[in-house]
Specification:
Radius of gyration: 28 Å
Number of strands: 27
Distance between the termini: 71 Å
Length: about 950
């Protein structure tokens, strides 16, 4: 018996299996807790960013979103920690590097991560008590707040009517305003008419109000049990401590309780079906029409087949020149086509989807997919394209740069297979053997056979389309059962009853947590803050004719090269053309390669090759700004020469004469922007409101905001007349922008990689043009943009520099305090928005925002009173203030991947800041007291008072606002 097996046995765990897994740079240990039935995986390696997650199998049995509401609700207080918002308390006070919960179609996951072992134990303690002993049984108001409740409003006729409010209810109103989400639900229901996947696990606005409190509790009792739990530990942690904690605090006590047999909702397999095409009417703009075909690949346990299908989809649909995507674009049936594999379900499936679909597109989609699949399967598939897709997939898996800590990513990966079979829980952590096997099979005709099986001989497939209508008849009928009464006039007694229930809810929401309850929450103090993680300062030198920013980062065999080209030689009205240039580069022919050949070379040899525009600001002088054209690339060290000469080929030799391909690319960008306005409208509102007061905001709007969107729409509307002029303009801009004099190279990688890059590079020639950019003065547009959404997104902001307020640690603390205390309570908890916050940047822009919000005026009023709250109500205990400091420092110290570190350091360099400046801010946070934060109240009040407002969202809500907006129908 190994030492770990002895440790496991001493805490009630039976060691099932241990195996080294190269892909996680460690060993995977599988265990079973005999008394409780809990399963456990320990991914042991040297990563200091440790993680824990607990997952429950929670297949939906209807559209009420009960497990989504439970995911929110269990984190609203528990037996051991009887406070209203322990989740938020942890956000405010812990060193967490990740803290969230996620509802999937068939499981609910609660992951946390931290670089501090005691902090991770604290996070585990709160999460485990939350999932196993939540306050939902003694506080029904949690269900009303997070799920749904009625409120009373007066109509224009003065009559009292009721309407539904609730955090999840409003979240799903926003989510299901997105045509892609509605299309996915329709396709999934068609493919799986007899299993859980026919339901929307997040809940639909029509069905959520049919969920009863009793049904809510009953689902928790049946599913949140240790014998339905999958626990994953990750990183360099003390197994004895963590296994002992799990056993003694939770699993053994739970096992001693009478539970009865496990009775969860069924998670079965769907027998093959091929139903008639499904049509889903949706009240949305005509250009949001979309359609998709889906093909079931197999079972989740068929790991190699699922990976192969993912690689195949990338090869034939991953870029505009991929063969199936090109066939769909050339057919002119839609503005864009995408392909992907939907996994983390029992039966993963491949999807080919159209955006901006034309009438009759669904039928033609099916025909084109079949015809092109047949052509490819019968010898038309370029095997080099498949090999390139394999290489790219392997790079992505090795880099593992998914925006989350590795422990969280690997836990999600493991659950993509483990939930459905205990045979090989670590299957989805391994990929090296799978890739090696598939490389051998390329020449054996494996992928041609897979094409036939997937698209031609598949008896498990479906087609769905979303058809825009002026009114969503299907949704209206569905909601009628629960909401027709709501539209009816209420009697005074009915209205009084609802008002009393809302009053009780507000009273519960506003009641402060008892000091003794808050004291039970585990918390670190300032004394637990260690030294800042070591970060090497960059050096500035030369690489041939270019200025070089040399980064010394742990790149682990990958090289990163970013070239920044100054754009201050462009006139203001030329800026949108620079964004168009960034959109099309890498997607058109060059003098040496077709676009398809270029895409294959990039996939085969690089991790990425991308182009973008951005603006850097001086932290002191608001008039000093640096718009830059950015080309970024990455490659394994041995492929670095390709990173140099492929990038240079694209920059120097792109042929802009193929205007039809340019039209395709710009149409895709238009659709992506319109969908972002509806799904991430808070980002659009924050960017737009910044243009009302900030010169850099004006430039960003011209490059990527509403200003660019309007330019893009006008360009597409008159494209035939302007195509030749556009081609000439792009060629001219390339010659002016891509010069040695205007180029700064940023490089991360070892010395050999830099030497190889230097040797493979050649000068552009030329000097940067003289600065001519004149930025128009910002003006308050006070706009509200109507987009295809059932909710709203509101922003309010101002430039802190105009108030004489320098950037410092106290501002970071104030941002965190306002976001997770005042705004969380007022806008999210009481107002029903899915999110709200306050941000301030080093350069000065300070903004409030709300996300998926049913209200506007009430939210703006909360923004306006934030300074008063900070000055008069904010009065934390010493322990609470320590918590804010700890969590804010942790946000500065959070581990970052090499690419993020490089880009962050580049941002500091271009804004005139240094790592010493960052360290100074960290020390200011660490030393800050209550008075330092309160001292900012008048400035916060000035920001909210002087700050203009901008809104994106639902037209009815916008027009009912008293804000006096200049209303713009953005999609008209």
């Amino acid at each position: 018996m190994t030492d770990l097996e002895q440790v496991a046995a001493s805490h009630g765990f039976t060691a099932v299996k241990s195996e080294p897994v190269n892909e996680v740079e460690g060993t995977v240990h599988l265990m079973h807790h005999a008394a409780s039935g809990a399963r456990l995986m320990f991914i042991e390696n040297d990563d200091a960013n440790k993680a824990f997650s607990i997952t429950f199998k929670t297949p939906a049995a209807d559209d009420t979103g009960v497990f989504h509401i439970l995911e929110h609700s269990v984190l609203c207080g528990s037996e051991k920690f009887p406070v209203k918002e322990p989740f938020v308390n942890l956000l405010k006070t812990s060193m967490q590097t990740f803290l969230n919960a996620m509802t999937f179609p068939d499981k609910t996951m609660y992951p946390v991560a931290s670089t501090n072992e005691q902090d991770l134990v604290n996070l585990m303690d709160v999460y485990l008590d939350a999932v196993f002993h939540p306050d939902i049984y003694r506080r029904p108001v949690i269900f009303e707040q997070e799920g749904w409740h009625f409120e009373v409003e007066r109509g224009d006729d003065g009559a009292a009517r009721r309407h539904v409010n609730g955090v999840v209810y409003n979240e799903m109103k926003g989510a299901l305003s997105e045509p892609d989400s509605v299309l996915y639900d329709g396709l999934s229901a068609a493919l799986f008419p007899d299993t859980t996947y026919r339901f929307e696990s997040g809940g639909t606005p029509a069905a959520i109000p049919t969920l009863t409190y009793e049904g809510f509790l009953e689902n928790h009792r049946r599913h949140y049990r240790p014998d339905n739990a999958y626990i994953i530990l990750y990183g360099n942690l003390d197994a004895d401590r963590f296994l002992g904690f799990l056993d003694e605090r939770y699993l053994a006590p739970l096992a001693a309780k009478e539970r009865g047999p496990l009775d969860i909702n069924p998670l079965g397999l769907q027998a093959p079906v091929a139903p008639a095409p499904v049509v889903v009417p949706m009240a949305t703009a005509p250009e949001n029409a979309c359609a998709a075909v889906g093909f079931v690949i197999g079972r989740a346990a068929e790991r190699e087949r699922i990976v192969a299908a993912d690689i195949l989809m990338d090869a034939i649909m991953g870029a505009n020149e991929s063969p199936l995507k090109r066939a769909l674009l050339d057919a002119g049936i839609a503005d864009d086509a995408i392909g992907y594999v939907a996994d983390s379900v029992a039966q993963p499936f491949a999807v080919v989807s159209l955006r901006g679909a034309r009438p009759g597109a669904a039928e033609r989609l099916r025909a084109i997919v079949a015809a092109e699949a047949r052509r490819l399967a019968e010898g038309g598939l370029d095997r080099e394209l498949v090999r390139a897709a394999l290489s790219h997939a392997e790079f992505v898996m090795r880099e593992r740069n998914f925006g989350y800590p590795d422990g969280v990513v690997l836990a999600m990966s493991a659950m993509a297979g483990w939930l459905y079979s205990d045979d090989d829980p670590a299957a989805y952590l391994r990929f090296e053997d799978v890739f090696a096997s598939l490389r051998e099979k390329v020449e054996e005709g494996y992928f041609e056979a897979l094409l036939r099986e997937l698209f031609l001989d598949n008896d498990h497939r479906a087609c769905a389309e979303v058809v825009p209508t002026e009114s969503d008849e299907a949704a209206e009928e569905a909601e009628a059962a629960g909401e027709r009464e709501a539209a009816a006039e209420l009697t005074e007694d009915e209205a009084a009853s609802i008002r009393e229930a809302v009053r009780a809810l507000r009273e519960a929401q506003e009641a402060p947590d008892a000091p003794e309850a808050l004291a039970k929450l585990p918390q670190l103090s300032r004394a637990d803050i260690g030294e800042a993680p070591a970060e090497a300062m960059w050096e500035v030198g030369e690489c041939g004719p270019w200025r070089l920013i040399r980064h010394h980062l742990p790149c682990r065999g990958i090289a990163y090269a970013y070239r920044y080209f100054a754009m201050d030689g462009l006139a203001f009205d030329e800026l949108p053309y620079a964004t168009v240039l960034a959109c099309v580069l890498g997607k058109l022919d060059t003098s040496r390669h077709t676009a398809a050949e270029l895409d294959t070379l990039v996939q085969a040899h690089l991790g990425n090759l991308g182009f973008a525009v951005e603006v850097h600001e001086d932290a002191e002088d608001r008039e000093r700004l640096r718009p830059m054209f950015v080309m970024g690339s990455s490659a394994l060290d041995e492929e670095v020469p390709w990173a140099a000469h492929l990038a240079e080929e694209v920059l120097r030799e792109t042929d802009f004469s193929d205007t039809e391909r340019i039209r395709d690319i710009l149409g895709q960008r238009r659709i992506a922007m319109e969908q972002a306005f509806a799904s991430a409208g808070h980002s659009a509102a924050m960017a737009r409101v910044a243009s009302y007061y900030l010169p850099a905001g004006v430039v960003r709007e011209a490059l990527s905001g509403v200003g660019f969107y309007r330019f893009l729409k006008e360009l597409l509307a008159s494209f035939d007349e302007r195509a030749c002029e556009l081609s000439a303009k792009l060629a001219e801009l390339s010659r002016r922008l891509f010069t040695d004099g205007g180029c700064t190279l940023s490089f991360g990688g070892d010395e050999a990689a830099l030497a190889a890059f230097r040797e493979a590079s050649s000068p552009f020639g030329g000097m940067a043009g003289a600065p001519v950019l004149t930025v128009p003065a910002p003006e308050d547009g006070h706009e509200a943009f109507v987009v295809a959404s059932d909710v709203t997104y509101t922003a309010c902001g101002w430039d802190r520099r105009l108030l004489g307020e320098p950037y410092g640690g106290a501002w970071l603390l104030a941002s965190r305090i306002l976001s997770y205390d005042f705004l969380w309570t007022e806008v999210r908890v009481k107002g029903g928005a899915y999110g709200a916050g306050f941000q301030t940047t080093r350069s000065g822009s300070s903004r409030f925002y709300s996300y998926r919000d049913p209200r506007i005026d009430e939210t703006v009023e909360r923004f306006r009173t934030s300074g008063d709250w900070l000055a008069g109500v904010f009065n934390p205990t010493e322990s609470e203030m320590d918590g804010y400091v700890v969590s804010t420092v942790a946000s500065l110290d959070a581990p970052a991947k090499a690419r993020e570190l490089l880009r962050r350091q580049d941002g500091l360099y271009f804004s005139g800041a240094t790592l010493e400046d960052r360290a100074r801010v960290r020390e200011e946070v660490r030393a800050a007291g209550i008075d330092d934060v309160r001292a900012l109240a008048s400035s916060v009040d000035a920001i909210a008072g002087a700050g203009p407002v901008c809104c994106f969202g639902n037209g009815e809500v916008i027009r009912a606002s008293d804000e006096g907006f200049n209303v713009v129908d953005l999609l008209a």
